[in-house]
Amino acid sequence: MTTKKEILAYAKQHGFIYPKIKVIFGFGLCGGMIGGIMFCCIGFMIETTYEQIINHISHKGIISLFLKLPFYILGFAFLGAWAGGIPAFLTGIYLSFKNFIFIDKKDYIKIFAIGFLITAIFALLMVVFSNQQPNMQITIWDLFIIPFPLAIIGGISAMICGKLFLPKLPNNF
Question: Most Cβ neighbours (<10 Å): which of 1, 20, 45, 105?
Answer without folding.
Answer: 20
